[in-house]
Structures are given as structure tokens and as C-alpha cells.
Amino acid sequence: MTATTTTPSMTFELNDEQRALRDTIREFAESEIAPHAGEWDEQHVFPTDTIRQLGELGAMGIAFPEEYGGLGAGAVAQAVVVEELARIDSSVAVTVGANVSLGGEPLLLFGTEEQKQRWLVPLARGEHLGAFASTEPGVGSDVQAATTTARPEGDGWVVNGTKAFITNAGNDLSAFVIITAKTPPADGGSALSTVIVPIGTPGYEPQKPYRKLGWHASDTRELVFHDCRIGGDAVLGPLGKGARVFLTTLDGGRVGIAAMSVGLAQGALEQAMAYAKERVAFGAPIAKLQAIQHKLADLRTQIEAARLLTYRAAALKEAGRPFTEEAAIAKLFASEVAVRAAEENVQIHGGFGYIEESAVPRFYRDAKILTIGEGTSEILKLVIARRMGLAD
Ligand SMILES: Cc1cc2nc3c(=O)[nH]c(=O)nc-3n(C[C@H](O)[C@H](O)[C@H](O)COP(=O)(O)OP(=O)(O)OC[C@H]3O[C@@H](n4cnc5c(N)ncnc54)[C@H](O)[C@@H]3O)c2cc1C
Q1: What residue ranges define each of the domains in the chain, with the CATH number in brackets?
Q2: Nearest C-alpha to atom 30 of ligand 1 is from which residue?
Q3: C-beta 133 within 6 A of ligand 1
Q4: Tens of pLDDT along 183-240?
Q5: Atom of ligand 1 minimally distant from the CA of 212
Q6: pLDDT digits (tens, 9 = 90+) for 64-80
Q7: Cβ–ligand 1 contact at 165 (below 6 Å)
Q8: Is 11 left (phi over 0), alpha (psi -120 to 50) or beta?
């Protein structure tokens, strides 16, 4: 049988707008981020001005509708932008990725018009950052077990509790944090809700940034809420349905982490290839050795698969179709590819890979969190097994 058309039934290419955004961010990352990334990492500096510039370039609003300050370019373009940033600097990538998917996305999906105007529009325009706090010192994967409380008082709420490992909630650009908290339902007991806490509210006490294994230039803190009074309009989404708000938010966040993983892996592969071509051993560049070629070819293959899984999940999200399982598959696979790529990059660099004078060890340290944040690999397998009808 001969084909009657040359149009492929599936396309695997970015469109013109997505390519243009990718090129803009790639150029910015290479010229404005790459020269400083090592220093920010070494000194644990949050690059406020660079994040602000990325906001001015439109990086925070790629996928948000134009009516809410965004570009309306869709979730695939958003993934591509985060990928490009992570190819150079994962700390910057997570600052943008978490701001968009954890700060902005729940407002778009669950916010009232007033909440969107107050918090989402400036976020999409890059004027301020938002955060989402679910994790607590004693509670991570088991989201429903949160112990932070929001009790009604007067016409508002009073929040008490502690959140752990929260991104973007204490730097100069931070404006609000959405938190999960137990609220009393009508029938007694307690239910999980999500509420918005403006940064600077009395009783909101961000702690000093953690010293982390990687992501040194991102802002991660413990947050303490001590009789923190917020307004009656602070509840995001239906009261008592905070788990749904959070889990829906996480689906999008997982596409972001998958994109970050693809970018980090791509950056590591490029570093490894460049070094393999220049490093001579036994009279020839090590790139001529089949052992090295196989490592690089394996990485190229795995990264391509991770990229396609990530773009597929993003494309489903963009089309308004279910993508929970696809996001979990993409994040699980891509994050493990990133860890492998970062490790092989060190291996190919030999002893130089272990010395803090290039980006190689930074990429190695930055990779590990990708298999932990926004759903550990174990939790993602649980999500996938559930979709397969295997787990409760
Ligand atoms: C740098 C950084 C930034 C972060 N940013 C944020 C943020 O912005 N907002 C936020 O809310 N959180 C954030 N987190 C927290 C992160 O999402 C959690 O660390 C992650 O969800 C895991 O939770 P946990 O650390 O409590 O581990 P736990 O849930 O205690 O898990 C510990 C181990 O047990 C395994 N495990 C747990 N339950 C199961 C199960 N049912 N089946 C199989 N294995 C299981 C896990 O896979 C893991 O290996 C951040 C963390 C870091 C390090």
C-alpha cells in the first residue's frame, strides 16, 4: 500500500512560536545566566535581578491566558522554557517552574476573579513570585496528614503551624504563599483546605534559607505560622477540598520537574560530549573510545525519550485533557534520566568531574532533588500503579 499524503499523522516538532520562545530563553540563559551560575551556586545567592529580567521577558506568563497577564502560548512552550533554563542553571529553572506551576496554576484553576487579579496577574507579568506550601517537618508524601491549622475567627482565619522545604516564599520578590491547612468542617473533625497567606502578614515567619545539597541559588525555607490572621477571602477553591487543589496543582508541577530534568540531562550531555572530544588518553580523544561513545549514545536516547514523554504530558495539559498518569510517567522517567546523565557526566570527566571548578559537580548535586520533589519516584510508581488498577 502506498501513502497518499506526506503529512505525518503525529508531529514531534515545536511550532514557530514555541521555537521562538525557546531561542529567546536559550540566548538569555547562555548570555545572562551561564557566566554567573557557578558563583551563585558557590555563594548560595538568590539572583533577584535575573529572575526579575526573566519576568520582564515573559517567562512567568508563557502558559497563562492573556487576560491574566500571560502570553497564552500553552503548556508545551512553558515546558520548553523551563527545559532551556535547566540546561544552564537548575536553581533559576526551579524558581521559574515553581512560581508558575505551584504559585500561579492553582490560582488559575481554583481562584476567584478577585484572587486572580490580585495575585495571578502580577505573577504572570513577572512582578512578584508565588509559592505553595504543603510539606511539613513531619508530613510530606502523605499530604492529608497536614497538622497546620486554619481556624475561623471573626470574618477571617487564624493560621498556626510549620511548613518545611518551601520554594520562593522568603525572597525579595515573594508576595504570597498558598498553604494546605486543616479547617473544621460543618460535621466536626477536620478537613484539608488551601488558603492564601500574603507575605508580610503578622505571624508569618519565614526562616533563614536551608543549606542544601543542590539548587543553591534557589530560595527554600521553613515557614512558621504563629497566630497568623488572614482575611475571609483567603480560601482558595472549595473549603475542605484542599487535597484536590494540591493534587491537581502537582500534576502540572510534575510536568515542570520533568522539563527541568530533560534540560539538566541535556546540559550534562553537552558538557560530557565537549570534554570527550578534547580530553586525550592513550593518544586519542576519549570520544573515540567505544565505551565513551556508548555512554553518550545511551544518554542521547534516554534524553530523547524523556523529552517526548514530557512534551506529550504538556500537550495533553494544554489540550485540557486528563494528564495525571502521563505527568507521573514523564516525571518518573525524566528525573531518573537526569540523575544518570549527571553521574555519567562526572564519570566521563574523570577526576576533573569531582572538582568544583566547572558546572559538572553542580549539575550532579542539582540532579538528585528531581527524583524527590513534587512526588518521589516511589509515590509516582504508586500513582501509575493506581491508574493500572493495581493499587488502592
Ligand atoms: C529543595 C526542595 C524544595 C521543595 N519545595 C517544596 C515546595 O515548594 N512546596 C512543598 O510543599 N514542598 C516542597 N518540597 C518538599 C518535597 O516535595 C518533599 O520533600 C517530597 O514530597 C517528599 O516528602 P518528604 O520529604 O516528607 O518524604 P516522605 O514522604 O517522608 O518520604 C520518605 C521516603 O519514603 C518514601 N515513601 C513515602 N510514602 C511512601 C509510599 N506510600 N510508598 C512508597 N514509598 C513511600 C518516599 O518515596 C521517600 O523515599 C521541597 C523539597 C526540597 C528538598
Answers
A1: 16-128 (1.10.540.10), 132-240 (2.40.110.10), 244-387 (1.20.140.10)
A2: 140
A3: yes
A4: 987 666 679 999 999 999 999 999 999 999 999 999 999 999 999 999 999 999 999 9
A5: 1
A6: 999 999 999 999 999 99
A7: yes
A8: beta
